[in-house]
């Protein structure tokens, strides 16, 4: 037997794991084990029967049956725990349509492990996995569980607390060894060693890495402070493998997702972490987005499309005999089908924005990457736009298709009236999106120029087949383009509809859509004018239209020497915005002698006479604002000159200004 052949009866040879020590012969020289085959003559005789038997036996010994957790199919994956407590490897089903959090939750709860204090790693990867990943993608792999830096002791204590609550404290009775089939000659040694380990704080960490001790915790006792353990226990931290493990632990701490936000991590490390994340997204797909945002499916790369968007290839498949239609009816059906088909295509493009670009950004931000990017400044309210089009499709356009399918009859354009008659209320989110479109585009261009991580992410996303070679800027412009297409599509239907009542209904739909678009255009123009007005207002340095005769008067005037260009116009609704019509430099003469260079702004309701401030790109108001309805303008004989007479409420002249333009055309 093994014990009788290889071991002596002395208990001093007991190995640290309760197995007798092997008394192996000392190894021969390296040169003796690596004899060159060139110096040996070739075999000229066949091998003996004994040699063949030994060789066959070695081959049979080398053929081992693969263990279950190393030969997995795609239906499950292996979960290994690399913690400071011993937990057996678990085989977890790779369930479809379930996240890692949902699948692993019961496993971690059963073992007393807090999900928020550990990270998951795929195979040999050093990049933590998101718990929002879908579990079925990891079938055939193994996942490694590690405590997050700083949480090692809390994880260990949680597991021990659960075991102390669920298991009784069982001690061997009568001094018997707790080990089954232990050698009789070594019972005493085993009992002594068991008692020794019960008071040894390092007993639980003899055969694994202790990251807390590695990081320099002074409260962890060392082997020297505890004294020699006795027997043949190996010393902790000896051998080259220990240094490899410590180096791996150091890199794991430095490049983990939690430590990545530290000030000592360089930009290049964040770029490597981003590229690793993007590679995992390309391999396994994007995980589910955070719960505060709802999308139509689990992952952007799913090949299956929603059933209500899977329409026929042509309207002719809806009819039993499409050839029986007249030419006008044929063209009308083509126009209606173009509206329906382009709507379904447009919704899919919108979902590329939300399910690829926006979802990817949110998942990266969960990992601590691209947190400086504000999704609202980049995508505005694109989610509301997606929801309104999904509602329009399900409530308006799908019923039109269903009626045609059931009756095997042509598409009826009047069935669209119920949805397009409420176009103004349905499409309210477009007002905000169109108003913020230009600022979103500018924000995107700035990020692409200045942020390398964002540029890398957008480039990765734009290469996906879902984008169909379109850039992010092209897709962000789609909503505005789609809005302006509705009148054209509806006009085409009305033009090819012969029945007067149906044509009138479609024409009313066109009018409703155009009214909304005109309203959006008007609000966008007002917004642009307000922005332009704010820019001019920021250029006004001071108001010096009235000068005080003394310091005391100056102090009194200081309270009133100001002008708010952003204030609403008098006698108009708050929605009306003051607009700039003309601006430019003029030479002004007031009275008979004084002349000066001025810069004038002509607005909707008033004229501002200002003077440039030296060395800064600002102006100061040097005359009172002149209300346009109180100004009388007369052209003078000199080319390019004119006079402005300002009247008060009694229609009496209170001021006169002569201006000379640089040219007659000005």
TrEMBL record:
Gene3D superfamilies: Dbl homology (DH) domain, Pleckstrin-homology domain (PH domain)/Phosphotyrosine-binding domain (PTB)
Region (Disordered): 1-63, 219-240
DH domain residues: 331-523
Any coiled-coil regions, as ranges: none
GO biological process: endothelial cell migration; Rho protein signal transduction
Pfam (any one): RhoGEF
Name this polypeptide is given: Pleckstrin homology domain containing, family G (With RhoGef domain) member 5
Natural source organism: Nothobranchius rachovii
